[in-house]
Design goal:
- The protein is α/β, with parallel strands linked by helices.
- It has 3 domains: 87 residues, Winged helix-like DNA-binding domain superfamily/Winged helix DNA-binding domain (Arc Repressor Mutant, subunit A, Orthogonal Bundle), CATH 1.10.10.10; 99 residues, D-Maltodextrin-Binding Protein, domain 2, CATH 3.40.190; 90 residues, Periplasmic binding protein-like II (D-Maltodextrin-Binding Protein, domain 2).
- The protein is built from 12 helices and 12 strands.
- Strands 4-3-5-12-6 form a 5-stranded mixed sheet. Strands 9-8-10-7-11 form a 5-stranded mixed sheet.
- Strand 8, helix 9 and strand 9 form a beta-alpha-beta unit.
- The protein is elongated, with a radius of gyration of 24 Å.
- The two termini are 38 Å apart.
- The relative contact order is 0.13.
Length: 324
């Protein structure tokens, strides 16, 4: 196919094709693209004519791609990324008047403790935009970015797709959360004797705290595992339950829910809260504006960063400009 043949192609069809490669289901493609099922079915028929191939074969409730579809997708995905990037450079963005919709993926801790601050700021600067927030964790982030369900995610992250970018925002420091009236900080022995609650979206009853205790020959008793942080204040209230949570969650709960937050009585691993986004929206003015607002709201307060100011400059400090 030469450039003149591109007149036969419809970019809307190509978007349907890419979405079908991710979703493998006509109904889900329609929901994602806000199109009716007959429209999606018609688009697939036109795609089959365009590429002279069945492209997708029904297998139960799933539409499995043919070998030809896989080959087309491998070439098409980078091309669509390039088109999206080129178009984004041509767009302007004024937060005061914009009615744009942004799709964010936030981990539960970020949604609970940090999203309210961001929302207050955005309501002042961009009163007409819409935020669509999806709950993600480190296992889901890659797929949601790759599938286009979100354009920006904030969480502790693991491996990411090759066409994504990442920026560290702040450390995730574990803190002890409690609701009892016993005076003074809790010692390690008492910490191990007391019952514990933990948050796990997967329903686990062991985490980094248990691994740290086992290394010094100690253990605790987890009596409750819940899937989200918002349940903790009610569950800990008027009980001797303890919980280890990120520092920003502990402080938010201590401020709003009457909990007590204090350092844990043992050294626990510190992870990193990261902001990740699709490379295709790196230069999009609206997405860049949102990343800067997230960075301002979610980064660690300046007073907690003082200990790092004296470190020698590193060559990769230029990466700090990546979100701009």
């Amino acid at each position: 196919m030469n450039r003149n043949d591109l007149r036969r192609a419809d970019i809307h069809l190509l978007v349907v094709f890419e979405t079908m490669m991710h979703e493998r289901n006509v109904s889900r493609v329609g929901e994602k693209l806000f199109l009716g099922q007959p429209t999606i079915s018609g688009a697939l028929s036109r795609l089959r004519l365009l590429f002279d191939d069945p492209l997708f074969i029904r297998s139960g409730r799933v539409m499995e791609p043919t070998a030809r579809a896989e080959e087309i997708f491998a070439n098409l995905a980078p091309a669509l990324d390039g088109i999206a990037a080129a178009l984004s450079r041509c767009q302007s963005f004024d937060p005061r008047t914009s009615e744009a919709t942004f799709h964010l993926g936030l981990s539960d801790d970020v949604e609970y403790a940090l999203l309210p601050r961001l929302l207050r700021q955005l309501r002042v600067e961009a009163p007409n935009i819409t935020l669509v927030v999806r709950r993600v964790d480190q296992r889901q982030m890659s797929q949601m970015l790759l599938g286009g369900d979100i354009s920006l995610g904030i969480s502790h992250t693991l491996e990411l797709p090759a066409n994504s970018r990442r920026k560290g925002l702040r450390p995730i420091r574990p803190m002890l959360l409690r609701a009892d009236s016993q005076p003074g900080p809790l010692g390690l022995d008492e910490f191990c004797r007391r019952p514990h609650a933990m948050v796990s979206s997967m329903g686990h009853a062991l985490d980094d705290t248990d691994h740290a205790l086992s290394r010094v020959g100690l253990q605790r008793k987890v009596v409750l595992s819940v899937p989200q942080f918002s349940a903790l204040p009610v569950l800990l209230a008027q009980s001797d339950l303890l919980a280890i949570v990120p520092d920003y969650v502990a402080k938010a709960m201590a401020s709003a829910a009457g909990m007590r937050a204090e350092p844990a009585p043992l050294v626990l691993p510190v992870q990193e809260l990261s902001m990740v986004w699709r490379a295709t929206v790196h230069n999009d003015p609206g997405e860049r504006w949102l990343r800067l607002r997230c960075r301002a709201c979610f980064c660690e307060p300046v007073e907690l960063q003082v200990v790092r100011k004296s470190r020698p400059a590193r060559h990769d400090d230029q990466a700090l400009l990546a979100a701009r």
